[in-house]
Structure to design on (685 residues):
């Protein structure tokens, strides 16, 4: 059956009744399929075998310090906003063993960790999280050093993006130019459409690998009406977005106001719990932990997520460099919105809003940035620190 | 020695990158010799059976040293870059890991990852006066630079070393300091914060030694390593005397766990001290240096 040529940018239609076939094809092709599912009252990413695992009939309400799942009458699989998980959980896992060592005589032998991770296919990835993966690519696969653990996990992933059909109350991707439409980093991108009794996906091809998967399931060419239905969904989502972060001269704004009283005000509310860093899809800091067995014969090094909000994070003999909550919040926000640009040529914020939702006291980075802009001043709008290239 | 200017205008060293094939995997080195330098500081000489040529490094770089089952810490290399077959580290016992490392005996093994980080500007200093200022154990990362300055003595103009220790019993490399002092063309001054009985030398902070040395502020390179407060006042003194921030270099210390810019602990403003430092041109980090809790 000669179908439409499937090239990047081609849009086709897949009926929702074929979604199971689609998942099955991914498993058959050797992927470990991961998708959204409801667990412990939140939407998480986990192994996905059946469409019945998807959060159909669920949506959520999110605000600062608030996340509530809500039942709906709808049939949509992807009517929820992002939960606390991002792809970070899989590509840069919370705990990774780097190596093991065994005592031998007066010395020891080290054995590198070479375990092959699963080949992941991710279903339901939102545009903001795709930008977060692109940001991690810059962190972990730079020209100097590549992180072998990340590189192994990242190399063969298959990404099925879903364009957001609803803006969460803490989302601000439009202002960060990272969403709500997936534009980069996907193999296939779905827009879910419910029209009366009809439930289908407009599927955009992002790569040849994506096209190859699509060829194994039923699809048909998208009509102009179907394409514009998809566009309307995305435009409506963008239109709903209430929050925004103005990134004009944001780096200078942060670098020029390190001693502003503004930081004292936010420090009074910040609990330094580190939740924001755990749910952030771009926060990448880790600590290493060397452990041994009781006999002292074997040892291993584990790397686990760490947070710049802990006192230990900046510890040097004698004390912590950043002992106060003010200094730690300043480090986090300045890193996200200023230092990232110097270090990796991109902001460390993708506008997903998780740090707002999961902050127990509802500190809102968009409000903080606005407050700093209102109160602080940019002394040298065109002068950058050192000889930084502009991103 | 291929050196690249990166986008931040900071000099970086590349020639030793990949000196060890796996930057995350400690390579076992055998302890050949140990020397007690002071009551709490030890110098270790290490060699690797699997790498008889040793570990090429540049003056100013550091390694991550691993004590089996205990942990890992960053320690600057204090040996001679011209003799890389012996890896020399000087360690002060201040915590559990440095105590374990200080307690090794010949025949024991330590894990080594590295070398990491930037170098002292020995090329940049050719043809200039050079003033080296060290505080406490800050002399250790400067010793490789001193070896190179002495080896190519004729390629530099005046060379001076100003060294401050807390008390006479904290003076590092005491015998070597005496030998350096006798070298022609090297001006060595040592001071202690607190003199004890029998100390006939200078007493006071290291900045008080600056008036004792002659240098041309317009053509001098200053290299400083020591506690941050000492570096701050040293930099101020040289700036007052007209040495530009671009010709003053300092070596920074921060919590470091990976050495390659992944763990995030060592950040100072836009910089990762582990790979953009530890040696910085002062002009580069002036904005961030010395700010409280930065």
């Amino acid at each position: 059956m000669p179908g439409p040529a499937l090239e990047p940018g081609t849009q086709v239609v897949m009926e929702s009744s074929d979604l199971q076939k689609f998942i099955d094809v991914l498993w058959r092709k050797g992927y470990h399929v991961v998708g959204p599912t409801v667990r412990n009252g939140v939407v998480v990413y986990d192994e996905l075998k059946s469409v019945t695992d998807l959060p159909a009939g669920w949506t959520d309400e999110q605000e600062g310090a608030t996340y509530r799942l809500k039942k709906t009458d709808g049939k949509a699989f992807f009517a929820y906003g992002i939960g606390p998980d991002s792809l970070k959980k899989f590509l840069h896992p919370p705990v990774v063993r780097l190596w093991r060592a065994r005592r031998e005589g007066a010395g020891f032998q080290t054995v590198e960790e070479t375990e092959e991770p699963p080949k992941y296919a991710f279903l339901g990835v939102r545009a903001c999280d795709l930008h977060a993966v692109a940001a991690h690519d810059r962190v972990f696969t730079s020209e100097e050093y590549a992180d072998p653990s990340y590189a192994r996990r990242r190399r063969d992933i298959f990404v099925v993006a879903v364009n957001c059909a609803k803006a969460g109350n803490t989302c601000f991707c439009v202002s960060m130019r990272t969403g709500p439409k997936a534009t980069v980093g996907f193999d296939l991108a779905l827009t879910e459409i419910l029209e009366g009794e009809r439930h289908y996906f407009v599927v955009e091809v992002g790569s040849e690998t994506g096209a190859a998967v699509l060829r194994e399931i039923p699809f048909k060419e998208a009509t102009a009406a179907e394409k514009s239905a998809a566009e309307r969904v995305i435009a409506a989502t963008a239109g709903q977005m209430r929050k925004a972060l103005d990134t004009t001269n944001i780096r200078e704004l942060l670098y020029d106001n390190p001693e502003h009283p503004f930081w004292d005000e936010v420090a009074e509310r910040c609990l330094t719990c580190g939740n924001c860093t755990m749910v952030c899809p771009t926060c990448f800091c880790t600590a290493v932990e060397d452990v041994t067995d009781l006999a002292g014969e074997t040892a291993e090094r584990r790397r686990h997520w760490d947070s710049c909000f802990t006192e230990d994070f900046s510890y040097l003999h004698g004390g912590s460099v950043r002992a106060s909550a003010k200094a730690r919040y300043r480090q986090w926000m300045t890193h996200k919105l200023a230092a990232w640009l110097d270090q990796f040529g991109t902001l460390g914020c993708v506008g997903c809003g998780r740090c707002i939702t999961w902050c127990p006291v509802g500190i809102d980075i968009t409000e903080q940035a606005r407050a700093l802009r209102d109160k602080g001043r940019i002394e040298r709008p065109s002068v950058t620190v050192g000889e930084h290239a502009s991103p | 020695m291929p050196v690249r200017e990166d986008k931040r205008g900071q000099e970086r060293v590349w020639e030793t990158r990949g000196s060890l094939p796996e930057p995350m995997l400690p390579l076992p080195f055998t302890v050949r010799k140990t020397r007690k330098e002071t009551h709490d500081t030890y110098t270790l000489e290490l060699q690797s059976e699997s790498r008889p040529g040793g570990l090429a490094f540049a003056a100013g770089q550091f390694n991550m040293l691993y004590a089996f089952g205990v942990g890992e810490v960053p320690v600057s290399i204090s040996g001679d870059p011209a003799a890389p077959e012996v890896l020399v580290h000087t360690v002060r016992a201040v915590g559990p890991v440095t105590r374990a490392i200080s307690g090794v005996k010949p025949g024991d093994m330590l894990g080594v990852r590295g070398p990491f980080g930037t170098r002292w500007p020995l090329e940049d200093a050719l043809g200039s006066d050079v003033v080296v200022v060290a505080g406490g154990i800050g002399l250790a990362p400067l010793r490789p630079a001193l070896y190179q300055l002495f080896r190519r003595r004729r390629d530099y103009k005046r060379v001076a070393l100003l060294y401050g220790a807390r008390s006479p019993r904290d003076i590092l490399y005491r015998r070597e300091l005496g030998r350096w002092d006798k070298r022609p063309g090297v001006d060595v001054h040592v001071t202690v914060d607190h003199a004890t009985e029998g100390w006939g030398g200078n007493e006071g902070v290291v900045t008080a030694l600056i008036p004792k040395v002659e240098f041309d502020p317009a053509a001098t390179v200053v290299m400083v390593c020591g506690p941050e407060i000492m570096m701050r006042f040293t930099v101020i003194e040289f700036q007052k005397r007209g040495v530009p921030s671009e010709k003053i270099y300092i070596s920074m210390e921060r919590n470091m766990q990976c050495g390659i810019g992944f763990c995030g602990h060592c950040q100072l403003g836009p910089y990762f001290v582990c790979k953009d430092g530890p040696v910085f041109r002062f002009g580069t980090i002036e904005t961030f240096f010395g700010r409280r809790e930065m």
Q: What stands out?
A: Chain B has two domains: 3-116, 129-251.
